Amino acid sequence: MYDVGRRRFMRAVAGFGSTMAFAPVLTLAGSSVVNKKPIPATGEEVPIIGMGTWQTFDVGGDEKARSNLTRVLQAFFDHGGGVIDSSPMYGSSEQVVGDLLNEVGGKEALFAATKVWTRGRQAGIDQMRRSMQRMGVGVFDLMQIHNLVDWETHWETLKTWKAEGKVRYVGITTSHGRAHSELEQILATQPFDFVQFTYSLANRTVEERLLPIAQERGVATLINRPYQGGSLFRRVKGKPLPAWAGEFDCESWGQFFLKFVVSHPAVTCAIPATSKVRHMVDNMQAGAGRLPDAKTREKMRAYFESI
């Protein structure tokens, strides 16, 4: 499923042993600095690579899986991570994240994001309070309305919560390319701080309207499914990473895909999900070093489409 460049890099770092996830930041690009971008509403900066938790952290009480995810989470923070995105829709993910945060170092960098995913004012309030308890967060950095569900009701609650200091930022989400027209209308009329949607080399629909309107309106963007559910890796299986990828400090197909996404001027942060330490390290390295410019992004698109 993974490209030759990614496997070659993984073999290279494997020699560091099982403690690799807890070591100082290492990048083949020669940089230990994860790039950051500002949240337009305030200027606060966040790392351009975050972490999603859909499916990967939905492990309930499985101790073996939790032990592995502790190492994944530690690698995330060790390599400059901050933004963690979850949702009540993701089964036990919120609870697992909350529990494991107590076992790792570096969590002072945490930018905690989750979502409200229900109907009705009081149901939304109750759900958000449960999320706070599960993730162990007194004040969420970002609370988002998941997939536009009863968004007008929750929007009123969240404006009040933000004014009262119960949440720092408010956002709204969609995924899989759904409800783009409605989301565009919402962004055009309502002052959300964040918007989340799907964007990848294989799914660039949001380049037409959603990314431009987010940029015009000063809305930060979180990008879900940047690997298109893993289908990007299947498409390039056995294909060589272009030699010119080194011009923007890219050493694997995973980094190629992520660097394309986060180099868009309207993208704030991408949130790929993984349950493997080596993939987490590779994801985070996509946030370090040089990013492709507009001309290179077009070259990347053309190369990918030629495969």
Task: Give the key terms.
single chain; 307 residues; alpha/beta; TIM Barrel; 8-stranded parallel beta sheet; two-stranded antiparallel sheet; 11 helices; globular
Walkthrough of the structure:
- The chain has 307 residues and is an alpha/beta fold.
- The chain has one domain (4-16, 41-306): TIM Barrel.
- The protein has helices spanning 4-14, 63-78, 93-101, 121-135, 151-164, 180-189, 210-217, 231-236, 253-262, 277-285, 294-306, and strands spanning 36-38, 45-47, 51-52, 83-85, 111-116, 140-145, 167-173, 194-198, 220-224, 269-270.
- Helix 2 (63-78) packs parallel to helix 10, helix 3 packs parallel to helix 4 and helix 6 packs parallel to helix 7 (210-217).
- The longest helix has 16 residues, at 63-78.
- The protein is globular, with a radius of gyration of 19 Å.
- It starts with a helix and ends with a helix.
- Residues 1-31 have low confidence and may be disordered.
